[in-house]
Design brief:
Shape of chain B: globular
Order of helices and strands of chain B: HEEEHEEHEHHHEHEHEEHHH
Oligomer: heterodimer
Strand content of chain A: under 5%
Number of domains of chain A: 2
Radius of gyration of chain A: 28 Å
Number of strands of chain B: 10
Helix content of chain B: 25-40%
CATH topology of the largest domain in chain B: Rossmann fold
Number of helices of chain A: 18
CATH class of the largest domain in chain B: Alpha Beta
Helix content of chain A: over 70%
Number of helices of chain B: 11
Order of helices and strands of chain A: HHHHHHHHHHHHHHHHHH
CATH superfamily of the largest domain in chain B: P-loop containing nucleotide triphosphate hydrolases
Shape of chain A: globular
Number of strands of chain A: 0
Structural class of chain A: mainly alpha
Strand content of chain B: 15-25%
Number of domains of chain B: 2
Structural class of chain B: alpha/beta
């Protein structure tokens, strides 16, 4: 049975290599893994003889194990041999299933890369036959711990990922987790530890050496330092942890296989009955424009796939801006205008507006040919979401700079800026549309985006920036040369006229080019289906 | 919607020389079909025969390589606005804006066609009630079962009062209760002089519901006309198999006949 699973895994790897688009992703993954393997291996080997070599092993083993625990969560569904749903109908005992999937998990690029990294410790730290033997055992056990830990975490997550709310929550949680490092870094730069690399390693190793993630590394380090008793104790602890995880894994696997899919409609609290067009937006027209705008607004509120990139686009520049404002000594009042900069990255969301709809776009195509109304509705929804975000950003900025007199100017510029962004975005959305990843898979990356659409996206961002320059120049010149009220009035009139012009021109170009090509647009944004 | 004399002279759906290839695979090979007004027209055929491709081309969702499609005499690909106003579509894959609630999705479909809000509301309530979706009307569509989705899309397809309804596998993976509700709605629709074109694998269903049928095999129409003429007294399945052809020498699987214990 173990042999069958291993052959299945090898076959999947081979097939992965021969599948057009998948090949590129596979190669990127393999190159990344090889790079990490080489770096980890040489780091450990090069440390041979240095004082901090054992501590380095603790840090490297700890990082690798932590990576194994987190990474499969991000790539859930990419390894078909570990998706328990696929094995549901096979008459396998729990023991066969666990040993088979475990063996298959040990075959692959990632386990090989990890093994290469770990074996650097064998060369870098062994000094006698006994220590070499103990380190080799520790390496094997640490690798097993990595694989079992990651599989256990996936199996435990299956029930969570099966329910819609669980998937929604996971997407948002991952967005926030993904954003934590840059945000922390921004705040932590002031408290960066001073000292050389070796001291830092020793310091970190001292803190983590007894966490389960670092047990393997600590066993290696103790073997290198000749503390064999402690090594043996740690090896026993890792073996125990592996067995415990295997037990948890096999039980949660069985539960995942036998529990029902929670797909039944959830109860709706009474009194939630509402129309498509929100009551608090009475100015949305009751026609196609209003329908598309209201639908997109509902999606911003309800679809984590739409919210996550918005949060991602906003939070890093905003935090960077506010962190640097809070640190800088002089804060001229005009810096209030910088609050608008934080919303510029949301321009990325304007570049594939129909791709965000995906296959359901058929309903818009089937019910008439009116791309003008569709684009207008979509742009309206974007403005209704992004202008308040820009306003919030400007308010926070003003509270730092006390430049409240610049508030009207900053607020009034926001619609002009979004006019420019959306005008360019509309053209790109119909000229280079592409399918977003399958919505069923909660953690899918984007295989549909080819090189061409990526380049087009970058080009569009550049065009958006260039078209924003006149607004910036006019605002800057007038603010410097004339009294603020005059500058505010003239800039707002000129910038908004300019923004409206760019938006209308872009939208009309988009409408003309897509009017006869709606089926092609639908085809481009619908994810490929099997068969 | 009243028909002008000119339009009334046309069949509900006219297809001439319609063709589509995907790469080297010919999906639909220059087919011709006339769907009489007020008929219940079934398109049957094995998997991959080109049924879905034909329906997508007839509804303006997939551009044909060649050929023309007229709805009430209106060229679907030359005058898409007028043609699409007359048709309702239930596609096979049921991709929906599933973060809307059921009732919101119906309103969305109605507003896309610039219908009056009070009309949308009245008809939505009636359709939801008739199809047994009232209790789930305020749940997100993402939480709907397959059958509920199908009924909801059918409601959306009927909302604007189309003349011609295209249904791709409307009874696939549907429980008997939902199937009965859908059938009742469709029978009402044809009684009101509406025309239905639907594709299906299920011969009994086509036999029970359709008055006209087209048999598609490998992208071609092998036979089209009144169902009684095709059956000629026998069952539709026999007539279908005779047209499609059966593998001649089927090798026996003797081990299947032995009991396993």
């Amino acid at each position: 049975m173990v042999g069958t699973f291993v052959r299945l895994k090898l076959r999947l790897l081979r097939n992965g290599l021969s599948l057009g688009q998948g090949t590129v992703l596979f190669l990127i993954g393999a190159i990344g893994a090889a790079l990490l393997a080489v770096i980890g291996f040489t780091t450990l080997v090069a440390a041979r003889g240095t004082r901090h070599a054992p501590d380095l092993a603790i840090v490297v083993f700890g990082l690798a194990t932590l990576g194994w625990a987190i990474f499969p969560v991000l790539g859930f569904g990419t390894d078909e041999t570990l998706d328990p749903q696929r094995l549901e109908t096979l008459p396998l005992t729990r023991r066969q299933l666990v040993s088979g999937v475990l063996a298959a998990s040990l075959v692959g690029v990632a386990p090989l890369a990890t093994l290469i990294v770990f074996s650097g410790a064998l060369i870098g730290l062994s000094h006698s036959l006994v220590s070499a033997f103990l380190i080799a055992v520790a390496i094997v056990e640490a690798l097993l711990l990595c694989v079992v830990a990651s599989r256990t975490i996936v199996a435990l997550m299956v029930p969570l990922l099966r329910s819609r709310r669980g998937r929604d929550f996971t997407i948002l949680a991952l967005t926030l987790i993904g954003l934590t490092p840059p945000v922390l870094e921004l705040f932590a730069t002031r408290h960066a530890p001073s000292g050389n690399f070796g001291d830092t390693v020793v310091e970190v190793a001292d803190k983590v050496r007894l966490t389960p993630f670092a047990w393997g590394g600590t066993a290696v380090a103790d073997a290198a330092r000749g503390r064999y008793a402690s090594t043996l104790a740690l090896l026993a602890a890792i073996a125990g942890a592996v067995m415990l995880l295997c037990w948890i894994w096999s039980h949660s696997l069985e539960r995942a296989l036998t529990s029902a899919d929670p797909t039944a409609p959830t109860a709706v609290p009474r009194g939630t009955r509402s129309g498509l067009i929100p009551r608090w937006l009475p100015f949305l027209p009751s026609n196609r424009v209003g329908a598309v705008a209201a639908k997109d607004l509902r999606y911003f509120a309800r679809d984590p796939r739409r919210r996550a990139p918005l949060i991602g686009a906003m939070i890093v520049p905003a935090v960077a801006l506010f962190a640097s404002l809070s640190r800088s000594q002089s804060r001229p009042a005009a810096m209030t205008l910088l609050g608008l900069v934080a919303v510029l990255p949301t321009a990325g969301l304007t570049l594939n507006q129909f791709g965000l709809d995906g296959a359901p776009l058929w309903s818009t195509v089937a019910s008439g040919n009116d791309p003008r109304a569709d684009l207008t509705g979509k742009n309206l929804a974007s403005v209704l979401v992004m202008v308040p975000l820009a306003a919030a950003s400007v308010f926070i900025c003003a509270s730092f700079t006390h430049g409240w007199t610049y508030l009207p100017l900053a607020l009034g510029l926001a619609p002009a800026i979004f006019g420019v962004l959306l005008g360019v975005g509309d053209v790109v959305s119909v000229r280079v549309p592409y399918a977003m990843p399958d919505r069923r898979s909660p953690l899918a990356y984007n295989p549909g985006q080819g090189c061409a659409s990526m380049l087009a996206g970058l080009g569009a961002l550049a065009v958006q920036c260039v078209l924003l320059v006149p607004i910036a120049v006019v605002a800057a010149v007038l603010v410097v040369a004339t009294p603020l009220p005059v500058a505010t009035f003239v800039t707002l009139v000129a910038a908004n006229a300019y923004g409206a012009l760019i938006w209308r021109t872009g939208r009309d170009i988009a409408v003309r080019s897509v009017w006869w090509r709606l089926p092609e647009l639908l085809d481009a944004v619908s994810p490929r289906q099997a068969g | 919607m009243t028909l002008t004399d000119a339009a009334a002279a046309w069949p509900a759906l006219t297809v001439r020389g319609l063709a589509k290839s995907f790469g080297s695979k010919v999906a639909v090979a220059e087919i011709n079909v006339d769907v009489p007004r007020g008929s219940f027209f079934g398109i049957v055929g094995p998997n991959g025969a080109g049924k879905t491709t034909t329906l997508r081309m007839a509804t303006g969702l997939l551009r044909p390589d060649r050929g023309q499609v007229w709805v009430d005499g209106i060229d679907v690909w030359a005058d898409p606005i007028a043609a699409k106003a007359r048709i309702g579509v239930l596609p096979e894959d049921l991709a929906l804006f599933e973060r809307l609630r059921g009732r919101e999705l119906l309103e969305f479909h109605g507003l896309l066609r610039n219908m009056d809000t009070t009309v949308i509301e009245t008809r939505s309530e009636q359709l939801l009630e008739f199809l047994g979706l009232t209790d789930a009307a305020d749940a997100l569509v993402v939480d709907y079962s397959h059958g509920m989705r199908k009924k909801l899309v059918l409601a959306a397809a009927l909302l604007h009062g189309p003349r011609l309804l295209f249904l791709d596998e409307p009874f696939e993976a549907i429980d008997p209760v939902s199937a009965r509700a859908i059938r009742a709605v469709l029978e009402d629709f044809t009684r009101g002089a509406g025309t239905i074109v639907f594709s299906s694998h299920v011969m009994e269903l086509v036999e029970r519901m359709c008055d006209h049928v087209a048999v598609m095999v490998q992208g071609r129409v092998a036979w089209a006309g009144p169902i009684d003429a095709l059956r000629a007294g026998g069952s539709l399945e026999d007539a279908f198999v005779a047209l499609v052809g059966e593998p001649e020498e089927r090798q026996a699987l003797p081990w299947l006949e032995r009991s396993s214990d």
